[in-house]
Design goal:
CATH architecture of the largest domain: 3-Layer(aba) Sandwich
Shape: elongated
CATH superfamily of the largest domain: P-loop containing nucleotide triphosphate hydrolases
Number of domains: 3
Distance between the termini: 33 Å
Structural class: alpha/beta
Strand content: 5-15%
Number of helices: 18
Helix content: 40-55%
Length: 458
């Protein structure tokens, strides 16, 4: 998306004409003018611009100097060189030096409109590629949806059905049940499939950082904002935005989200220009959102905006038959990655898996299979290879207390089970366990390092 345009020309009439053409082509753009190349370079240092239209020949610093300055920024601005017929060769050289395109005087409104559309698409692709690169670097690549359970297959069918509309979808389910995968399914099955699919984890960022991630920010909006940055709403324009774990947002941010969902418009942090987007929203939560509203932890008006099409994901323990299927899938997946043969999985292991409640659901099963594949040395995964907390706990005569297991195993199971019962709410889990939220956070970090849970656990 393009927001701010800089026009540099030392001829007042040409400068004003370029300003008028750009403003007429797109009234939502903010256009700033510079009377020569030196002023243009100063303005580029002081503020951020998405596109620069610069005359090629100017006294002092010329259009090539402005081009060099604009391309040295982070992020760089796209530059369009404006020139006369006799300067075409120099203009072509400017394109080879990083310019986006050039315009020959006299310039028509149609030319500017076409060029702006190309620039918008160019900027959108750059930002989307940057986002996807960051996502893939963080290990958030897409995964195949596996499941033959009737309830799960029916859920997938409903996702494909609602995907044909632009309705907002609310996916509710325990952590690790596959909410992000189904949100991707909705996008891929929708008319927006060729548009961007953008995700933001509302639980992973502080309130101020999340606001900047969602809405973007202008240069100088806060300490460290050295350049303007588009937010996830802008990146998702024409596609789908996944608001992952939306219950972790503050009341202030919920009010701002309500406005965007209702009106499809917002302002960047530190900005004044209203930006409009065409976005399809999918929200996820591991809590019962209706109960969160009753407890006054979530805005009722936002709940009704999100709850247009509510879908509930079944936990793994309720997906009969899928544990065997998923275990085989993950075994083949990790063996392919490691370049080793797929080991046989003993029936006793699968029986232990069927009895285990899987508080971390599919994500926990995937992590466990990865660990066992890595540690396998004889081509067979037997019950001895399965951690004690997964196999049937040995209990005392009164059936209340587990025995023969380490305190660390018991502590981990109690903490994870309590988090599960509290729908992932760390504050409530800490209160129930009579420990601090900091202790829970440190324990979860330790469990991630040991491979019991992954970084997306909430």
């Amino acid at each position: 998306m393009i927001g701010r345009i800089l026009v540099a020309d030392d001829t007042p009439m040409d400068r004003e004409l370029m300003h008028e053409l750009v403003a007429s082509a797109d009234g939502s753009l903010q256009v700033v003018t510079a009377c020569d190349g030196g002023e243009a370079c100063r303005l580029l240092e002081q503020d951020s611009y998405d596109v620069v239209f610069t005359d090629l020949k100017m006294p002092g610093k010329d259009g090539l100097d402005v081009l060099q300055k604009a391309r040295s920024l982070d992020p760089p601005a796209d530059v369009v060189v404006v020139t006369g017929h006799g300067e075409v060769r120099t203009a072509v050289q400017a394109i080879k030096s990083g310019g986006f395109d050039y315009l020959l005087k006299p310039i028509s409104l149609d030319e500017v409109e076409v060029l702006l559309e190309r620039l918008k698409e160019h900027r959108r692709l750059i930002e989307e590629n940057r986002y996807l690169h960051a996502e893939l670097s963080g290990g958030n690549g897409g995964r195949e949806i596996i499941g033959q359970n009737a309830a799960f297959k029916d859920l997938c069918a409903r996702c494909r059905h609602v995907a044909r509309t632009d309705a907002t979808v609310l996916l509710q389910g325990e952590s690790g049940t596959g909410k992000e995968l189904l949100s991707r399914l909705i996008h891929d099955a929708s008319p927006r499939r060729d548009g961007p699919f953008i995700r933001v984890n509302c639980a992973a960022l502080s309130d101020s950082l999340l606001e900047s991630e969602l809405f973007g920010h202008e240069k100088g909006a806060f300490t460290g904002a050295h350049a303007a940055k588009p937010g996830r709403f802008e990146l998702a324009d024409g596609g789908t935005l996944l608001l992952d774990e939306i219950t972790e947002t503050s009341e202030k941010l919920q009010a701002e989200l309500l406005r965007v969902i209702e009106q499809k418009e917002f302002e960047r942090v530190g900005g004044t220009r209203t930006m409009c987007v065409d976005v399809r929203f999918v929200a996820t939560t591991n809590r019962d959102l209706a109960k969160e509203v009753e407890a006054e932890r979530f805005r009722e008006d936002l709940y009704y905006r999100l709850n247009v099409v509510p879908l509930v994901l079944p936990p793994l323990r309720e997906r009969d038959g899928d544990i065997r299927l998923l275990s085989s899938h993950f075994a083949h997946k990790f063996c392919d990655r490691l370049g080793k043969g797929t080991p046989a999985v003993a029936e006793g292991v699968l029986e232990a898996f069927r009895r285990y409640p899987w508080p971390g659901n599919v994500r926990e099963l995937e992590n466990l299979m990865q660990r066992m594949i890595i540690m396998d040395s004889d081509g067979v995964i037997d019950t001895d290879d399965v951690p004690d907390y997964v196999t049937t706990p040995r209990r005392s005569a009164d059936g209340d207390l587990p025995w023969g297991r380490s305190l660390a195993d018991i502590e981990r199971q109690v903490i994870l089970a309590t988090l599960h019962r509290m729908n992932g709410n760390r504050t409530q889990a800490a209160e129930r366990l009579d420990i601090s939220t900091r202790t829970i956070r440190n324990k979860l970090k330790k469990y991630m390092q040991e491979g019991h849970i992954d970084e997306n656990f909430s």
